[in-house]
Design brief:
- With 411 residues, the protein is α/β, with parallel strands linked by helices.
- The chain folds into two domains: 234 residues, Glycogen Phosphorylase B (Rossmann fold), CATH 3.40.50; 161 residues, 3-Layer(aba) Sandwich (Rossmann fold).
- The chain has 19 helices and 13 strands.
- The strands form two sheets. Strands 3-2-1-4-5-6-7 form a seven-stranded parallel β-sheet, sandwiched between helices.
- Helix 6 packs antiparallel against helix 7 and helix 10 crosses helix 15.
- It is globular.
- The relative contact order is 0.10.
Length: 411
């Protein structure tokens, strides 16, 4: 099977949710089929990582976006009544390269990773298309609108409306449409909704790490840990919520308890949290594993969130206790009291953390996280489902393989 793979960001290094999923998809498909990768990078330094992906691809094309081009593209989309997200990823040069590839590559299927990349495909479609929405971004922008004030909320609401219309159009036009959870699938409406399949994320279970913790991490203990890219609004909102509404309630009973925020590019709102008692903002770190190993618990206090949070899977894979709001827990099918603790109100969230601090037996109840992710989040199993969907879209499987699509929808 010959696949044209379009991605809005270069899938390497696999150090954030959207890149992790795209990297594993590319690696799996590239080992079994002929893949040409076309993607964007946000910097020249990032673009150099394309060399790490060439072993999976017959051909690679990476284009570096500039802030000027991003703003110009967004303005263009605003004037044309299109989603700003599409404008931020628009490039006439990129479009020329894709058109040339479609004219000469003789592909069996086009795999589109993120809806913003569908704009590069001509209509009518020259070859079958499989669209991996990952998450339904229009729902995320609607959440942004509800949590913001005018005039920003108006802009967010506009993006939610335009992007929802765009998503529905491409769900209808594609041979198959993929999202990460059943909750995301339910957000797609219209003619194409019947072809929405659920192909979740996976997680790699790390080898047991018996190395001693670095002294600088031991000095932080005990602490709750949050890991994520810290210029991403849902992550920013989550750590602010925890720092302002939850941590003070925990420290009333356990003043020794800290909060460590690990992740690249912390915006000023996040950096300012380091002035509060017990809070450490690390920025980029050489490796996250030591912070994860040293933590008392991992927290996922999301009020704005879509889809699967990989940080939860990674914490479960090393057997860490987790306290999460209900949305991220539901996305991975984790039940309160069995796999993790779920709490939405600040006091309930604080009480759950205090219980973990005070009851060692409670922590033991959640040590089955490794088994949970092994049973439910195998990359090989998830990506085999993806491969079957692509083969069927390309017409390379008989009609009896409809059962494969049904299984993917219901997983």
């Amino acid at each position: 099977m010959k696949i044209l793979f379009l991605a809005h960001r270069i899938p390497y290094p696999p150090n954030k949710g959207e890149k992790i999923r795209a990297f594993h998809e590319l690696k799996f498909l590239g080992a079994r089929h002929t893949v040409d990768l076309f993607c964007f990078a946000d910097s020249r330094e990032e673009a150099r990582h394309i060399d790490a992906l060439k072993k999976f691809c017959r051909h690679t094309y990476v284009e570096t976006r500039s802030k000027v081009n991003i703003l110009a593209g967004a303005a263009r989309s605003f004037l044309r009544g299109e989603p700003l997200s599409c404008g931020c990823f628009f490039s006439s040069k990129f479009q020329t390269e894709v058109v040339r590839a479609l004219a000469t590559g003789f592909y069996d299927v086009v795999f589109v990773y993120c809806s913003s990349m569908a704009q590069y495909l001509p209509l009518p479609l020259p070859v079958p298309v499989v669209m991996d929405f990952v998450d339904i971004d229009s729902a995320k922008w609607a959440q942004y609108a509800r949590s913001s004030s005018p005039p920003v909320s108006w802009l967010f609401a506009r993006e939610a409306r335009e992007l929802a219309r765009y998503e529905e159009e491409w769900a209808a036009a594609s041979s198959a449409t993929i999202v990460t959870t059943r909750q995301e699938a339910s957000l797609l409406h219209g003619e194409g909704a019947s072809r929405v399949a659920v192909v979740g994320n996976g997680v790699e279970i790390p080898a047991e790490n018996k190395a001693a913790l670095p002294e600088e991490i031991r000095e932080l203990q005990p602490y709750a840990l949050f890991v994520g890219t810290m210029d991403y609004l849902p992550n920013v909102d989550a750590v602010e919520y925890f720092a302002e509404e939850i941590l003070p309630r925990v420290r009333e009973r356990h003043p020794e308890m800290g909060f460590v925020i690990v992740g690249r590019d912390p915006v000023r709102r996040v950096r300012n949290l380091a002035s509060k008692p017990g809070i450490v903002v690390t920025g980029t770190v050489p490796e996250v594993e030591s912070y994860l190993t040293g933590s008392t618990a991992v927290v996922a206090p999301f009020r704005i969130a879509q889809g699967i949070q990989n940080k939860l899977l990674e914490a479960l894979a090393v057997g860490k206790p987790i306290v999460s709001t209900s949305g991220p827990a539901a996305a991975i099918g984790a039940k309160h009291g069995e796999t993790l603790l779920v709490a939405d109100a600040p006091q309930d969230f604080a009480n759950a953390l205090v219980a973990i601090l005070e009851d060692p037996a409670l922590c033991g109840r959640f040590s089955n996280g490794v088994d949970f992710v092994r049973r439910n989040f195998s990359w090989h199993e998830k990506l085999s489902e993806l491969e079957q969907l692509l083969l069927r879209a390309a017409g390379l499987l008989p009609n009896c393989d409809e059962v494969v699509l049904n299984r993917a929808r219901n997983s």
